[in-house]
Amino acid sequence: MRRGTRRRVGLWLGAVLAGTFVTMALLSFVWTPWPYAAMDIAQKLRPPSAAHWLGTDQFGRDVAAQLMVGARTSIAVAIVAVGIGMGAGVPLGLWAAATRGSWIDEVIQRGGDLVFAFPSLVIAILITSVFGPSAVNAILAIGIFNIPVFARVTRGGALSLWTLDYIRAARLAGKRGARISVEHILPNVANLLIVQGTIQFSLGILAEAGLSYVGLGAQPPTPSWGRMLADSQTLMGLAPQLALFPGLAIVLTVLGLNLLGDGLRDLMDPRLRRQA
Amino acid sequence: MTLLSVRDLSVAIHGRPVLNRVSFDLAPGEVFGLVGESGSGKSMTALALMGLLPHGAEVGGQATLAGTGLIGLPERRMCGLRGREIGLIFQEPMTALNPMKTIGDQVAETLLIHGAASRGEALRVARQRLDRVGLAGERFPLERFPHELSGGQRQRVCIAMAIALRPKLLIADEPTTALDVTTQAQILDLLRGLVAEEGMGLMLITHDLAVVAGLATHVAVMQAGRIVEAGPTETVFRTRADAYTRALFAAAHHVPRRTPRIGSAPMLTVDRALRRYPLARRPFAPPRFFDAVKAVSLRLNKGESLGLVGESGSGKSTLARAVLGLDPLQGGAIRLFGEHPVGPRMPDTLRAGLQAVFQDPYGSFNPRWRVARLVAEPFHLLPAPPADAAERVSAALTDVGLRPEDGERFIHEFSGGQRQRIAIARALITRPEVIVLDEAVSALDVRVRAQILDLLCDLQDRHGLSYLFISHDLSVVRAITDRVLVMQAGEIVEEGPTDRVLDAPEHPYTRDLVAATPKIPPGWMEDDDAA
Amino acid sequence: MPRYLLSRLGSLVLSLVVASVVIFVVVQVIPGDPATFMMGLNATPDTVEALRHSLGLTGPLPLRYLHWVGGMLTGDLGTSYTYRVPVAGLVLQRLQVSLPLTVYAMALSSLLAFPAGMLAAARRGRGADLAVMGATQLGIAVPNFWFAMLLVIVFALRLHWLPAGGFPGWGGGLWPGLRGLTLPAVALALPQAAILTRVMRSALIETLSQDFIRTARAKGLSQGQAVRRHGLRNALIPVLTILGLQFSFLLAGAIIIENVFYLPGLGRLIFQGITQRDLIVVQSVVMLLVAAVIVVNFAVELAYVLVDPRLRR
């Protein structure tokens, strides 16, 4: 009983943290405390105050406004990257499981291994070295890496389902691989995909921050948490708070998403066990 | 003299009672059988005696082993008793051994952990004990790993491990349930011999009344955490004082009323069917194959129940998949209604005439669908869903003893027996003439099994169905089939009317199989047979 | 040799070939003419032609691919356009920073994660487990480069215990070199340790629920003895897998950390390659990193065989 309550706390804490940042990002479309790009050199490097809640940067821009718009970038990149990963990975995983043991399965699996051999950062570097740095290329790099992740999770979940008798019953009802995958397999691996989705979402935010930090992600003037950290690096001795706030934003968002993912898994797992 | 004395043993897990004032005694050299259906608390009794209950368990009452109180003993003292004074054998030999360690090390560990021997000495004893349980040194050196052994051989290793220090008490929890019947007979013989030789007490936990009848001197029947009846085995079997015991024993012996009307029209004909699998290739070697089903022929007539028995690996399930048209054949032919070929590409309308019920009542249904949709799934085989689809689903549910309203519920709301009823309703929905029952009652407790067997016979009478009944359990096959085929290593070795084959088997393998099947002595259940 | 190993060896070679083709296509085929790409739009046709020649970028694509692969196999990684020196020499020099950094970080992470994971598994659901799991939850959420910046602010700028950046080289002995790599290694190691701890814990808990642990308990082993004698080795397979993945992740993840600390490692080399459009350097170093990942994963699979007797046939 106590165990269940504690998990529920994690789930709610995660939902609140992640929800806060999504709200911040959405709010930034209609309102920010200051225009996020407005410079005011006279007000540069101010510590947090009533006027500028989180202080100002080296050009006198409002840090709070930048953080809010930066949340937008992070979330957009991570969501699209998860979308790419799911959009391509889930069908591939279903296909591989439906044809388990065949050459199609083998090609899909080895293809996944191959992508895994390129750490996502190296994919990003390859892409940007040819196409130049941009948020779109960052999305592509993270998204490509997500494809085999989702393919594997889907295939793994689907494989254990394919051994169950209800799949045999569906085949006796004249249904073929594709239809069985959609009707019987997909709904029953959806739990796994939701959990993996939140994990990849948080990893995407971390990856975007890393790429932007080294200049391979969103380009100026689009604010992003990674680049705010990069800009703050030369000012570490002078204004350490500039390094603090974007980092905290990343940590809290990722923490929230991870807690949410864990909470969802715990919430869904026992029910799965009772039903299966 | 009493070896083990249990008084008012009660266990609650997280406040939920699972054992309720269980009491019994066990003398040295005696076999005490503890029988009951799943969830009756048999295994919990063993775990409570061993001090291995899951977290959150509260134990009350007393248990003394040769003067030592077991309940509430400090963990450190309990560790000293386990393995030395009490040996324990579990149901599932495939997972009971550590896959990373040799069998020699695992048997020797029992001695080493209790400081009873040096390493060299422990290995020498391990060798002796493995020899004793029938794993002779030349074929089974100590350096073997568990994955190199069969299930029966692994169970022998587990027994060697449990008896390595010659404990006073041996607890065997369903030790043969996961094994084939011929292997089961050997393991039971081994246990019987060990008890006689070493003078230890054996507590045998099982759901199988026939196993208890053949081995135990005393027996206790458990239900819902209580012992409802206990005494010398023959007395309990003959008197059956308690209502539950009577119901349980009657169900184990149950033979459904049948009035077979067998026609001459062939419903299903299998003609020299061959199922061949390619084996992993070695480089530069010719491809190798494994024939799981070798040129098998059979014929199922209208209204007939045909049994197909065999042990695991005999190819009966592979044959079932081919008969259902799920897998292609590599030779021979399977025909439905005498003319239509069966295979993965058979037309849907033909498939509608051939349906199946599978073993696992839990894995047979998509947990996200409501029962009505599950039952209606085979309508996919028809060119268009019938106009009266809903009525037909309701009728099918009523047919199998459920209510039409049950269609609105999800599958997890049903018990194992109810799920098998739903599986039968699904198999009936397209009004097929042939139904393949692949171990369809094997996962059920005896009382539920008896009800499902009755239902199957009733449906056969009413709808003129033909059954291909695949099972490893000879008693079930005897109860429900007209003819039986015995399958071994991919081939049919004997075929004939069920009573003739099981009463006077001709093929040596069938004879082994029949001889190995545990039986309740004929005189013990007389009044029941008469009824 | 066991069939398992043969098949893994086959897929190792295949992966290397496919990876090299992918890299070659991305770097040399997709941009059109690499020489023009490297020189920029303002270059005259003559200078582009000269560069093309000096880099060996003439001839049909398949030949160029074979030439590149053949060179890699004999240790010739081509010549850097910006540095005008063989790439192989540059890589060797940079590896002296990147490799020790990776190993240092892995050692730190393992030293931290193994005991923490075991403790959490043994105390499952109790205070120590909750504390460890809470810490790992935080550790996973912290970007390593930001953690690196915090370390610099505290330990270099405030406390002056360790240098804020740069690398003195191994010439001055082991200690100055290690000192220079300590903050980067800690920054890399902590988030990895968080992941490893969680894997270790769940692998152990998974193993502890296995039937053979119950068998061991029935023999008279205490819970602790059962874990040590039967649990650890079985839990090792998933842990090894993660260690392999982490090695490659650290090698590549060091790219960002090297930027925080201005360390002259492989990561900086790649970056300079990209900013200076030095495709030869990018192509060869990326291939080396990918090859390292593939080979390490193969080594992990070899280690499985040592751990698990079921694979020895």
Features:
heterotrimer; B: 531 residues; alpha/beta; 6-stranded mixed sheet; 20 helices; 25% strand; globular; C: 313 residues; MetI-like fold
List the helices and strands and how they pair.
The complex is a heterotrimer of chains A (276), B (531) and C (313).
Chain A: H1 2-30, H2 63-98, H3 103-117, H4 120-131, H5 135-162, H6 165-172, H7 177-213, H8 225-233, H9 241-275
Helix pairs in contact in A: 1-2, 1-9, 2-3, 2-5, 2-7, 3-5, 4-5, 5-7, 7-8, 7-9, 8-9
Chain B: E1 4-13, E2 16-26, E3 31-35, H1 42-50, E4 57-65, E5 68-69, H2 75-81, E6 86-89, H3 93-96, H4 103-113, H5 119-132, H6 151-163, E7 169-173, H7 181-198, E8 201-206, H8 209-215, E9 218-223, E10 226-232, H9 233-239, H10 243-252, E11 266-278, E12 289-301, E13 305-309, H11 316-323, E14 331-336, E15 340-341, H12 348-351, E16 354-357, H13 371-376, H14 389-399, H15 416-428, E17 434-438, H16 446-463, E18 466-471, H17 474-480, E19 483-488, E20 491-497, H18 498-503, H19 508-516, H20 526-530
Parallel strand pairs in B: 3-8, 3-9, 6-7, 7-8, 13-18, 13-19, 16-17, 17-18
Antiparallel strand pairs in B: 1-2, 1-4, 4-5, 9-10, 11-12, 11-14, 14-15, 19-20
Chain C: H1 3-29, H2 34-39, H3 45-55, H4 61-73, H5 87-122, H6 127-141, H7 144-158, H8 174-208, H9 211-218, H10 223-261, H11 266-275, H12 279-307
Structure description:
The complex is a heterotrimer of chains A (276), B (531) and C (313). By secondary structure, chain A is an all-alpha fold. Chain A contains nine helices and no strands. Chain A has helices at residues 2-30, 63-98, 103-117, 120-131, 135-162, 165-172, 177-213, 225-233, 241-275. The longest helix of chain A has 37 residues, at 177-213. The radius of gyration of chain A is 22 Å and the shape is elongated. Chain A starts with a helix and ends with a helix. Chain B is 35% helix and 25% strand. Chain B is built from 20 helices and 20 strands. Chain B is globular, with a radius of gyration of 25 Å. Chain B starts with a strand and ends with a helix. The model of chain B has no long low-confidence stretch (mean pLDDT 91). Chain C has 313 residues and is mainly alpha-helical. Chain C is globular, with a radius of gyration of 24 Å. Chain C contains twelve helices and no strands. Chain C has helices at residues 3-29, 34-39, 45-55, 61-73, 87-122, 127-141, 144-158, 174-208, 211-218, 223-261, 266-275, 279-307. The chains are: A mainly alpha (276), B alpha/beta (531), C mainly alpha (313). The A-C interface holds A 3, 110, 113-114, 116-119, 121-122, 125-130, 202, 206, 209-210, 213-214, 229, 232-233, 236-237, 240, 243, 246-247, 250-252, 254-255, 258-259 and C 11, 14-15, 18-19, 22-23, 26-27, 30-31, 37, 125, 137-138, 140-143, 145-146, 149-150, 152-153, 157, 245, 248-249, 251-253, 255-256, 259-260, 270-271, 273-274, 277, 279, 282, 286, 289-290, 293-294, 297.
